[in-house]
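Posting this for the archive.
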Amino acid sequence: LIQMLVPQWTTDAYRAQIVEVRDEMSDMYTLVLKPQTGLIDRQWPSFVAGQFIELMVEKDGARTSRCFSISSSPAYYHQTGLIELSIRIQQKGRITPWIRERLELGGLVNISAAQGDFVLPGAIASSAKAEKLLFIAGGSGITPFRSMLQQQVLQQKKTLAEQSIKLDIHLLYYSRNAQQVVFQQEFERMQTEYPNLKVTFVDSEKEGFISADHLLTFCDDFSERTAF
């Protein structure tokens, strides 16, 4: 009866409204969602930077789910009420191209609570000293790292006290070529706003894939860092 009156309402998931669909590259887009609140909707329980959710959509009368990392930060969610999923289109996939083509602004989808343990350990995240981290990502695998980095940048802006808690982070970001670097301008801006961040963009077309030589060349203090 409730589902007849409230679209996409269900007892085992949360409703979210599509606020924006933003193309990042020819084969990647960002879905901006606003988890619903109100008398009929349960409060979505937020998340930790690096976690993922299940996105549930109805296609041809059947509910289908896919898991995507949240590419925005908890701080951004608390400020705006929005979360972002940055999704690579699988050319032979049944769902990722369909989502981009068929979901409309203002429409509703279902999402799960956040899941996953690819997160900064609490001891690191709350430490008063500058822990040294190495992030290694390739292509669309950057999404959980974007969430972590955005969280650090937004947190340090909150209060002077939090500005003293800075992680020393080096990101090695591999792309297919120099034209296929999603979020490049954002990461370049982050470096200016967060002095303890260094981003090295690696063009795999020229440099190849990650190797011991790359670590020695691009991050010679890698042995001092905790790697993600």
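The CA atoms of residues 28 and 131 lie 32 Å apart. The first strand starts at residue 14 and ends at 25.
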